[in-house]
Amino acid sequence: MTLFLKKYNNHFLLVGIGLVWILLLIGLLDINLQTIIFPDASNYNESATNLFWHLRGHCNRPLLMATIYGLPLLLGASDTDLYVIAQFINAFLWLLTIVLFYEILLQQTTKKIAFWLTIVFISFMGITLYNFHFLAEIPFLFFLVLSYYFLQKYNQTKLFKWLVFALAILFLSMLIKPASKFFALLMLIYFMRILIKNYKQRIMMFLYASIGLCLFQAVGIKYQFGDFTISYIDSITFYNYLFSKADCYRKGTEFDQMNNPRADYLFTFKVHEQKKIVNEDIKEQLKNNKVNVVKAYLHNFFWNTISANTVPIAYSNITNSKKFEVTQSVLIWVSKYQNRIMTILGLLLSMFTLVNYKKHNFFILFTALLVLYVIGISGISSNQGDRFHIITYPFTLILLAKYLTAKPFFAPLQK
C-alpha cells in the first residue's frame, strides 16, 4: 500500500488540487445558488428522457451522451434531477481526465514539467466551469484524452490492442459530439493497412462494436427522421450561424444570433425537410456568396478566439455581493486571455510540428492535427466564446511539453 501511494502520490495530489479548485469556484461564483440552464442542456436532457422513457432517439444529440447521463432515470431519478447528477458525472470524468493527461505528459517530458503542465490544465477556467452544467464538453474531452492515452501506448509499445482501443474510443466520441467524425475517419484511414492486416484478431471486436454503434445511431436516425446521419446538429449549425451571418453580410443587415429570422423559418419544418433546405442554401451561397461566407467564417473564428467563457458571464449576482462582481469580472478576464494565449500557442505549435513532421512520431502529428481540426471547425459557429477551443488546451500542452523537452534546458537528465 505504501509503495502504491508513493508511486502515485502526484496523481492523488493532482486530483486533490482539482477538487479544491472546483470547491473554490463554487464559493467564488455562488454556483450552488445559480439556476441557469443553457439551451443545449435542455436538449441533452430531452435526449436522455427520449432514450430511457420512450425508447427513441433524438435528432440532434447522439445516444452515448444520452446513455451516460440518463442512466439515473432507471434508478428513479426525475428529468430535473439529471441537471444535478450531471455535475457529479462531469466532475468524476474531469478528475479522470486530469490523471490520464498527467500520464500522457509523463511519457513526453520530465516528471516535473508534466506535473506543472497538469496544474496549468487544471487551472483552465473554461474547462472547469463546464463541470457544473449538463453539456457535452467534459465527457467529449474525456473520450478524446482517453483515446490519445491509448494511442500513445501504441506508439510506445506497438502492441496492436492499444491502437484498437484508441480508435474505438475515438469513434465513440462521435456519439458524444458528432464534431469528431471526420477526424475519426482520418485516423481510421491512416491506420487502415495495419487494421486490414489484423482484421481477424479478437481485439478488433472493440473497434467493430464502436463503429457498429455509430452505424446503429445513423440507422436509427434514418428510421425515425428520414436521413442516414449521426445527428442533424451540423446542418442546423451551418444554417443558423455561418450561412446566416454570410446572408446578413450580403443583404447589409446586422446578424443577431438571438433574433434570427432564418432560424425561425428553419424550425417551422421537420428535421428531414430542414436538411434539404440547408443543403440547398449551402449550394446557393457557395455559388453566389462565397466572399461573404469566407468573411463570416473568419469573423466567427476571430470572435471565438478572443472571447471569454460564456458560463461566468451568464451567472447572476444572487446575493447582491460586490465581491461577486469583482470575482466574476476577474474570472471572465482570465478565461478570455487563457483562450487567446492557448489558441495562438496551439496554432503555432501545431504548424511548427507539421512543418517538422519528419522529426516526430504519429502520436505528436495527430496531436497537432487535432488541435488544428478543432480550432478550424470553430469558425462554423458564432458567439461561442472558448467553447470549441477549450477542447484543444490539453493537446496544445502536450505539444508544448514535446517542444520544451527538445530544448537542452528542459531535456531529461541522461542516466
How would the blueprint of this fold be written?
Blueprint: H1 2-7, H2 9-28, H3 39-54, H4 63-70, H5 81-106, H6 111-123, H7 125-128, H8 137-157, H9 160-173, H10 181-190, H11 192-197, H12 204-225, H13 233-251, H14 261-266, H15 271-288, H16 290-306, H17 310-314, H18 322-355, H19 362-377, H20 393-405
Please state the structural category.
Answer: mainly alpha
What coarse outline follows from CA principal-axis ratios?
globular
Largest sheet: none
What is the mean predicted local confidence, pLDDT?
94
| C-alpha end-to-end distance | 28 Å
Number of strands: 0
Number of helices: 20
* Beta-strand fraction estimate: under 5%
**Helix and strand string, N-terminal first?**
HHHHHHHHHHHHHHHHHHHH
Walk me through what this model shows.
- With 415 residues, this protein is mainly α.
- The protein is built from 20 helices and no strands.
- The protein is globular and about 65 Å long.
- The two termini are 28 Å apart.
Quick tags:
single chain, 415 residues, mainly alpha, 20 helices, 71% helix, 0% strand
Entry summary:
This protein is mostly helical and 415 residues long.
